[in-house]
Amino acid sequence: MSQPDPSILEEVARLRAELEDANYRYYVLDDPVMTDADYDHKLRRLQDIEAEYPELVTPDSPTQRVGAPPAEGFPEVEHAVPMLSLDNAFDEDELRAFVKRLGERLERDGESLVFCCEPKLDGAAVSLVYEHGVLVSGATRGDGRTGEGITTNLRTLRSVPLKLRGDNVPELVEVRGEVTMSHSGFENLNARAREEGGKGFANPRNAAAGSLRQLDPRITATRPLEFCAYQVARLEPDAGIATHSELMARLRDYGFRTSPALEVVEGGQGLLDYCRRLGEQRDELGYDIDGAVIKVDDLRLQRELGFVARAPRWAIAFKFPAQEQTTRLNDVEFQVGRTGAITPVARLEPVTVAGVTVSNATLHNQDEIARLGVMIGDRVIVRRAGDVIPQIVRVLQDQRPREAREIVFPDRCPVCDSQIERPEGEVAARCSGGLYCPAQRKEALKHFASRRALDIDGLGEKLIDQLVERGWVETAADLFRLEAERLAELPRMAQKSSENLVASLDKAKHTTLARFIYALGIREVGEATANNLARHFGTLAALMDAEVADLEAVNDVGPVVAEHIHTFFQQPHNRDTIDDLIAQGMQWEEEEIGERPQPLNGQTWVLTGTLESMTRDEGKARLQALGAKVSGSVSKKTAGVVAGPGAGSKLTKAEELGVDVLDEDEFLKRLESWESGESDA
Question: Disulfide: which of 48, 70, 424, 645 matches 142 by Cβ 3.0-4.6 Å?
């Protein structure tokens, strides 16, 4: 057996110190300093070294235990059955190897084994003990053997039964599960914290853990926490239950929530198929998961397989690509949006997050920079979930370099040098250059020509950039002064394509009042609001002269939007541009005044997948303007589901329930019919 050299001994000592510190901060302080990916990588490295040099294994190694001792403030609770961790599989080959190991140990074909699979929830693990059907104690995982008694806090969770359902309850049952916080609950919690001048949580997992460990249970009671059961540690008497999946069904009978994505599958291929399906659905679940938990379903086989030092042999966690990673903030640049909003963009040291290389992340606004306390040069944790724009969620301030420098928000527009203003009560700082700012000019023209606005065929982003950069177009009205002969001078613009664009511009002059209002790009005026404004006022002149109170009388227009609309039409340069557009031939028929029809009143609709012609929020707004309620889940009461590319479990459930499913083309046809009043739902 080879002897480790001093460098190996130093690495082992360093890894153990880092992992123990991470454990303490994660489990005790709820203040993680290491991402899951970093922790997994370091733990795997330590496991590899100890496997090569068994003499280095010590009882206090992080590979031999889970977590850290409980914090002060709660009574210690010793777990009758240790709350152990699981070994991890990071790719499909490792998952196949797990099945093969089980087969060899049981002396049977691994493909004949039956497994119970469910999402690996990303929250806080707890244990609940019931005697004669009544909750008597609840505790955190702690170090796996001793946790913190938080019974009073757990009793505040509505998803934790205080008394088990049914007459035939066991004398004793210990139920384990995860306390989580949904994405919507997390966003609402942080929004309340910001309104009250407090500091929000970095992610739902931290929010769940921190909420459980409040010394005042009244605070815990206000937090949107949910408990999901995933294991029975003790059951007396055992009632002859033979499989883990039967135990989960029994827990549901007792009144516990278990994962709706739990499935029983056979063999390695069944496991791979499940993990792939779950990975595809991950971004639509509404709560965080970081993989799948896989268990041999047969309890007798579980007992036969037994345990290793820190984990059961009969279970494994299949880990998805991490949605959070650590990197360095190298610089911050400021971008100007279509409405003049100044957005700070973090330039990051490139890092792979959730399978995608990330080098930029949004910092949202000046308030967010202050809330994070971030500085250029900091080590930061960046998060990317699904198609969400990557964002910095946490700063590792204890790793801040000496040369770190503050982020200075500009007071002049980085594009046109106009003064930057921050309206009272708003979080966004804005360039005051309006239509004169080239950055806003380009974005405003792109919006003006977009499909849902004037739908000017052939007027794409690159062409708009050229027109603005050459000074040929300064306002939307200048588009209608373009001539085919001059356009043909542009790169990749032959005479025929130039003539086609002019024809398209001529066609776009004949539109509807609602489309024209939407095309103007007034802040927070989407298609649904534009339709409501057109229907309510009937003419552009009436809308332009409306006071704030008149605007607030329009369906779906509140005080903030009313103020935006009124301010827009009070600006002389905006009125000049509108007059110029009309002089260039823009025209529409006057709308019939009256409230918009509500053909979907009382109906519930669901949007899933990606829409190409509009965002999901825009689709939601248009449905709501027609009277519909838009839900995040499918049930028998759902009137219809709009399914775009990437639709997952919601589409499957709709098909199972026989709910009407529309693709995007059919959805657009029906919208036009409903909005025109030509058809009832």
Answer: 70
Alpha-carbon distances of 656 from 609, 640, 651, 652, 667, rounded to whole Å: 17, 13, 9, 6, 20
| pLDDT tens-place string over residues 41-98 | 888 898 889 888 888 887 667 776 555 455 567 899 999 999 988 999 989 999 999 9
Same domain, 234 and 357: no
Q: Both tokens of residue 480?
A: 């209608």
Tell me, yes or no, whether 131 and 217 share the same domain: yes
Q: Is 288 annotated as a binding residue?
A: no
Q: Which domain holds residue 60?
A: 6-64
How confident is the model at residue 303, as a pLDDT? 94
Same domain, 651 and 666: yes
Residue 193: inside a domain, yes or no?
yes
pLDDT for residue 620 is more than 70: yes
Residue 346 lies in a domain: yes
- Across 374-383, 423-432, 590-599, the highest mean pLDDT is recorded for 374-383
Does 73 reside within a domain? no
Residue 316's DSSP bridge partners are: 294
Residue 655: give its domain's CATH number. 3.40.50.10190
Cβ–Cβ contacts within 10 Å for residue 9, how many? 13
Q: Is 100 annotated as catalytic?
A: no
Last residue of one domain, picked from the residues 508, 543, 558: 508
Of 409, 432, 455, the position where a domain reaches its end is 432
Per-residue model confidence (pLDDT) at position 3: 74
DSSP tag of 319: E
Backbone angles phi, psi at 354, to 5 degrees: 50, 40
In the DSSP assignment, the letter for residue 477 is G
User: Minimal CA–CA distance to 422: which of 337, 342, 522, 344?
Assistant: 342
> How many structural domains is the chain composed of?
6
Among the listed residues 42, 100, 120, 636, the single catalytic one is: 120
Q: Which residues pair with 141 in a beta bridge?
A: none
Q: 420-421 and 430-431 as β-strands: parallel, antiparallel, unpaired?
A: antiparallel
Domain assignment present for residue 681? The answer is no
Per-residue pLDDT at 332: 96
- Check whether residue 162 and residue 251 sit in a common domain: yes
Read off the DSSP letter of residue 108. S
Q: Is beta strand 172-181 parallel, antiparallel or unpaired with respect to 225-236?
A: antiparallel
416 annotated ligand binder? yes
| Location of structure tokens 């709308």 | 591
Computed over every residue of the chain, the mean pLDDT equals 87
Q: Of 386, 358, 453, 389, nearest to 609 (Cα)?
A: 386
pLDDT in tens, 149-205: 999 999 899 899 888 988 889 999 999 999 999 999 998 998 888 777 777 787 888
Supply the CATH number for residue 43's domain. 1.10.287.610
Question: Is 141 labelled as part of a ligand binding site?
Answer: yes
| 542 lies in the same domain as 634 | no
| pLDDT, average across residues 265-279 | 95
Q: Residues of the chain with pLDDT > 90: what percent?
A: 46
Task: Determine contact, residues 547/579, Cβ cutoff 8 Å.
Answer: no
Shared-domain flag, residues 218 and 98: yes
The answer to whether the annotation marks 483 as part of a ligand binding site is no
**Phi, psi angle pair for 530, to nearest 5°:** -60, -40
Same structural domain for residues 314 and 339? no
Domain check: are 312 and 328 in the same one?
no
Size of the chain in residues: 681
Query: Is 128 part of any known ligand binding site?
Result: no
| 653 annotated among ligand-binding-site residues | no
Give tens-digit pLDDT for 194-238.
777 777 787 888 899 999 988 888 888 899 999 999 999 999 998
86 labelled ligand-binding: yes
